[in-house]
Amino acid sequence: MALRLFNTLSRSTQEFVPLDPAGRRVGLYCCGPTVHDFAHIGNFRTFVFADLVRRHLQFKGFDVRHVMNITDVEDKIIRRVAETKMSLKEYTRQYEAAFFEDFQALSCLSPHQTPHATEHIADIIGLIQKLADRGLAYRAADGSVYFSIEKYRAGGARYGQLVNLNFDEMRPGERVASDEYAKESAADFALWKARAAADGAVFWPSPWGEGRPGWHIECSAMSMKMLGSSFDLHLGGEDLIFPHHEDEIAQSEGAGAQEGGRPFVKYWMHGAYLLVEGKKMSKSLGNFFTLRDLLRQGFTGREIRCALLTAHYRESFNFTLDGLRGARAALARLDECLAKLREKAGGATSAPEGELVGKFSAALDEDFNISGAWGAVFDWVRENNRLMGSGEATPARAAAALAAWEKINSVLALGRAEDSEVPAELQALLEDRQAARKARDFKRADVLRDELKTRGWVIEDTPKGARLKKV
Ligand code: AMP
Ligand code: ZN
């Protein structure tokens, strides 16, 4: 069955047809985290949504190339670097490491490439140069370089492809220096920001003087470098539609690298907010939970993933601990059924029964209708419980049911209950031990290590940091 998805660009649900003439390869870019602090689970709602899209595409046989950038230089980061007196790299790498730990705890597949803005300054400068050569970028009095919306539009291009903008209120040449700005204030935006005293040691040389890239240009430069000047899917949270993604289109199509009238991106998909009491979960409102907060409270990664996958990606939904407990209960029901099926199947193996796989996949094919997909899963649980209760289930039938579950679980990625997930309290002990080491309190660090050992876990050092392994 064909996959249909809601494309923000056309404001309609369309059949997904990749640009690859063979219909196999798919380029997917999802805007990644700004590593200025721990990500909250609102951020992770978007990354779990992107993971669902990628996994379902793979399930359907597409060969997905997934790129996610790491924004490791921007206004907020620079402020925090100045406060902490750390180097930019030291500061951002700690939050990047934490981000990937959380990302993995939620079973998100690692992107094939995770380019950093600071490692692509030459590509960024090259793209700005192209825009300058085409008359679309200009240097303002403060030395910063801006994108000219007036020139872009004068060349026949459309600014406002993802949102409707009112140009009557826009004064030509009006500029905005900050990376984040409101819808009403469509204005020339910064491509390159001239070095300011507050930037400290964060600057690079460029043809326009020392400075640093604006936020929007990094995604244009890195996505086109890694996926080509025209690619299939671009994802992010709904707050990125404007200005970030609109500006990405302007920069990328303004540079004119696309062949044969192709767009920069064929399908744009945006995930709705995770809310807290009706308001967007965000750092600035202070109404957020990090994944760590929840793990410490005893929830597991699979329970939190399940909760984040409750609602359709285009519907905002309220996060509550009760909701999370609801996800825990639903998973327990599923786990119980799976355990009974495993017992019944014994050693039997079978091809997957088709009904669950067909219904689940058909639901996701309809613009990732997750409620329909859950409906299929829980109908299946009910039916299997009934069969096992009435004695109608045979080992072969149970094995076929389990094989079907394994297939769809490659998309849901809920793992297995018995997978040795590190209990949250032990994870917290590990974190305390790492903190003790950092503070050079080696005595306490050793006590914590021994405590973990007596509880059956050893610490394993990996390139991604320390983790626990069962003895
Ligand atoms: P940031 O690290 O701020 O650049 O955000 C990373 C991703 O999280 C972006 O795609 C945002 O759109 C998304 N995001 C931020 N807040 C929320 C939220 N409350 N719900 C869902 N996605 C969010
Ligand atoms: Zn981006």
Task: Give an account of the 3D structure.
The protein is of the alpha/beta class and 471 residues long. Helix content is 45%, strand content 15%. The chain has 15 helices and 16 strands. The chain has helices at residues 41-59, 75-84, 88-105, 121-133, 149-154, 215-227, 241-254, 291-296, 301-308, 321-345, 354-365, 370-389, 395-412, 424-438, 442-454, and strands at 4-7, 12-15, 25-30, 63-68, 137-139, 145-147, 175-176, 188-194, 211-213, 231-237, 265-271, 274-276, 279-280, 317-318, 457-462, 465-470. The strands form 5 sheets. Strands 5, 6, 7, 8 and 9 form a 5-stranded mixed beta sheet that branches. A 4-stranded parallel beta sheet has the order 4-3-10-11, sandwiched between helices. Helix 14 packs antiparallel against helix 15. It is globular, with a radius of gyration of 24 Å. The two termini are 46 Å apart. The model has no long low-confidence stretch (mean pLDDT 93). It binds adenosine monophosphate and zinc ion. Zinc ion binds at residues 31, 219, 244.
Q: Main β-sheet, in a few words?
A: 5 strands, mixed
For the termini, the CA-CA separation is: 46 Å
Mean pLDDT: 93
Attached small molecules: adenosine monophosphate, zinc ion
Structural class: alpha/beta
Work out the oligomeric state of the chains in this entry.
single chain
